[in-house]
Amino acid sequence: MVGTTPSGTPKENLGHVVFITAAAAIGGFLFGYDSAVINGAVTGIQKHFQVGPVQIGFVVAIALLGSALGAWIAGRIADRWGRTRTMQVAALLFAVSSLGQALPFAIWDLALWRVLAGVGIGMASVIGPAYIAEVAPPAYRGRLGSFQQLAIVLGIAVSQLVNFAIAQLAGGDVNNRLLGLQAWQWMLGACLVPALLYLLFSTIIPESPRFLVAIGRTEMARRVLKEVEGERTDLEERLKEIQASLRLEHRPRLSDLRGPAFGLLPIVWIGILLSVFQQFVGINVIFYYSASLWQSVGINQSDSLLISFSTSIINIVGTFIAIALVDRIGRRPLLLIGSAGMAVALAVAAWAFSAGVHIGDTVRLPSAQGTVALVAAHVFVLFFALSWGVVVWVLLGEMFPNRIRAAALSVAAAAQWVANWLITVSFPSLAEWSLAGAYVGYAFFAVLSFFFVLFKVRETKGRKLEEMG
Fold first, then answer.
1. Distance CA 274, CA 307 (A)
2. Which of 4, 97, 150, 359 has the fewest CB atoms within 10 Å distance of its CB?
3. What's the rounded Cα separation, in Å, for the pair 187 and 162?
4. If we measure between CA atoms, which residue out of 466, 413, 395, 391 comes closest to residue 75?
5. In this structure, is the dihedral angle defined by the CA atoms of residues 367, 369, 375 and 380, taken in order, positive or negative?
6. Of 171, 161, 146, whose CA–CA distance to 385 is shortest?
7. Which locations, inside or outside the cell, does it occupy (predicted)?
8. pLDDT at 342 exceeding the cut of 90
9. What pairs with residue 264 in β-bridges?
10. Hey, is 362 helix, strand or coil?
């Protein structure tokens, strides 16, 4: 007798779904790696090109504008060329931009390559959740959708570990040379390896059954559904459900998102605000600037890279907690728990940073406050990872009606990247003005996010995509 899961999906089929989900989530790994690798390279870039905090903030943040563009166009590309072909385009962008970032001849040249990398990141941020939501059985969609965020946090962690290892090989200084290049150049170029793996796996996994139905390839869609949901599923009924949801559908356009709420449908605004709150709590300050932040409060370069890696490990732990809980207790409870925990941790961090004393051009924290700041930063990352880090991506992949999913997800993801850019580009100046003040602001948005979820976000646990709307 064939073993089954509690939902009735044969175990071997679930194993296949896990494989293709993990393969698709390599885009999330690249997303995390390419986003966070700059953390270890910031100091090296600044010294090599002799630029100040405004210029370095621009170079770090400009990739996010590329990400907004990539997210904006990904939905239309995915609906025209297919989900897997879009993954292949993103993989090529990752590969080419990695080489370019490793071999820049000027600061503006590096910035251009980072924009190209950002386009790949933005495309991966859209296509991963959409594809996984479309191939996952409803009973497991939350956990499988969490693979995207798990891949992102693994990418972040690996980037910090690679940065630390390269810095150690280069004698602890990212401007030292290693096999003809400075260490920071190797950090930025190492993304080539996972980019090529992503390209390989995106040619192996099947196309989304919903896209296949949309373009009239029903027989192939039936085969894919059989692969992912098993023979015991009524395949004809599933095809009818998909066809019914797509029957009145035309290719999603931005005009389809228009509605009475300030020009957009209310569900689109909810997606946009989920994305904005996910960034306005300041999570990427930790992953883009933590190495230089900890150096600024008296920790040496090598140890600061190690601390950055430790926060990445906490990020992974929190993500596993979210994967275990997202289909059990639901999306909304996790978001509420996360908002409350982040608000407290950020407020404590703000208090610790308020004790900073200026010594020359740097800030130093008393020993007790320094320890509190480190602990608070790790607690903040934990609560983010077990809630907003995972759940927002799950919700964005499943909360929109089929007829507008790709277009709405593109807009929400683009908003996320613009919000990320605003936080990233503003942090160096805010930190120079008042590091404590910056963290008070992030705590304020964490509090707002709690009430937004409480009053505006609906639960989607266990519902079929065809029922969304």
1. 29
2. 359
3. 7
4. 413
5. negative
6. 146
7. Cell membrane
8. yes
9. 261
10. strand
DSSP tag of 234: -
The set of residues, in sequence order, having a beta carbon less than 8 Å from that of 85 and lying 6+ positions away, is none
223-250: pLDDT as tens digits: 887 777 766 667 777 787 777 777 655 5
**What are the DSSP calls for 120-138, one per residue?**
HHHHHHHHHHHHHHHHS-G
Tokens matching residue 134: 């479309």
Which residue, among 41, 143, 58, 50, has the nearest Cα to 101 in the 3D structure? Answer: 41
| Residue 37 DSSP class | T
Q: From the CB of residue 422, how many other CB atoms can be counted at a distance below 10 Å?
A: 15
Can you tell me the distance from the alpha carbon of 208 to that of 135, in angstroms, rounded to the nearest whole number? 6
Q: How far apart are CA 146 and CA 328, in angstroms?
A: 13
| pLDDT tens for each residue of 369-380 | 778 888 898 899
**Per residue, what are the HEC states of 287-329?**
HHHHHHHHHHCCCCHHHHHHHHHHHHHHHHHHHHHHHHHCCCC
Contact between 239 and 222 under an 8 Å Cβ cutoff? The reply is yes
